[in-house]
């Protein structure tokens, strides 16, 4: 039996591997992958930076639609697993053709990637679960891809509001067979919930 992975992995060698604009450009499926999905601007890239303690590893922006391809990061040297930072879904202002292209890319990757161990589905603490999030959750249920819901930007709402949203989101998550029953509450800004997220990622890699 191999030793369990330690969170110090996130302080060690981590590097950007490649961007895949289409499935044919995906890296060789030789190690487990963990994906970060969610609506545009929810904070996917920021959370990857907070988790790896590196500003600017994944590119972030105030403007939705920053991440436009599947971006892969190698964790560990020797390589242990990969993180995939995905384009946001549900971005109404992008041209319909672009939205469609991202949608196919995201869905095809999530549904068809054999080495994908878990998807973290990010939900903005200010907005809760939107219809487009439910669609993605249903798609993951159907494809039997295990996922875990993460509330982001917890620093942007008052504690009482956060409690209400977290309860609602947990209630919805419980109805989804492939969703992990426990939510993660995070703020990349305040580094809240980041240790728990690291443990959740390592647990998924080893699952
Ligand atoms: N206050 C606060 N702002 C955050 C947090 N996380 C992200 N942001 C801000 O939200 C904006 C979007 O963050 P990104 O990480 O680029 O979001 P994304 O989900 O990767 O966006 P796309 O790649 O466009 O889909 C940026 O201006 C971030 O600084 C957080 O925890 N707290
Ligand atoms: Mg991004």
TrEMBL record:
Family annotation (InterPro entries): G_ENGB_dom, GTP-bd, GTP-bd_ribosome_bio_YsxC, P-loop_NTPase
UniProt xrefs under NCBIfam families: GTPase_YsxC
Record keywords, A-Z: Cell cycle, Cell division, GTP-binding, Magnesium, Metal-binding, Nucleotide-binding, Septation
Cofactor(s), by name: Mg(2+)
Pfam family name, one: MMR_HSR1
Function as written in the Swiss-Prot or TrEMBL entry: Necessary for normal cell division and for the maintenance of normal septation.
The UniProt record lists the keyword Protein biosynthesis: no
Keyword Cell division appears in the UniProt entry: yes
Protein name: Probable GTP-binding protein EngB
Stated family: Belongs to the TRAFAC class TrmE-Era-EngA-EngB-Septin-like GTPase superfamily. EngB GTPase family.
PROSITE patterns the record matches: G_ENGB (PS51706)
Residue ranges occupied by any EngB-type G domain in the UniProt entry: 30-207
């Amino acid at each position: 039996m191999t030793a369990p992975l330690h969170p110090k992995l996130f302080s060690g060698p981590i590097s950007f591997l490649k961007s895949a604009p289409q499935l044919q450009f995906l890296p060789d499926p030789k190690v487990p992958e963990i994906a970060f999905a969610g609506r545009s601007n929810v904070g996917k890239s920021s959370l990857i930076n907070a988790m790896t303690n590196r500003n600017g590893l994944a590119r972030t922006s105030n403007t939705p639609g920053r991440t436009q391809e599947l971006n892969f990061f190698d964790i560990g040297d020797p390589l242990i697993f990969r993180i995939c930072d995905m384009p946001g879904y549900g971005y109404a202002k992008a041209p319909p053709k672009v939205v469609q292209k991202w949608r196919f890319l995201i869905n095809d990757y999530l549904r068809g990637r054999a080495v994908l161990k878990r998807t973290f589905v990010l939900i903005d603490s200010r907005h809760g679960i939107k219809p487009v999030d439910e669609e993605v959750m249903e798609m993951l249920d159907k494809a039997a891809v295990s996922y875990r819901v993460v509330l982001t930007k917890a620093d942007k709402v008052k504690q009482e509001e956060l409690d209400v949203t977290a309860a609602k989101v947990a209630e919805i998550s419980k109805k989804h067979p492939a969703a992990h029953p426990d939510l993660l509450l995070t703020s990349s800004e305040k580094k809240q919930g980041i240790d728990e997220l690291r443990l959740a990622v390592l647990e998924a890699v080893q699952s």
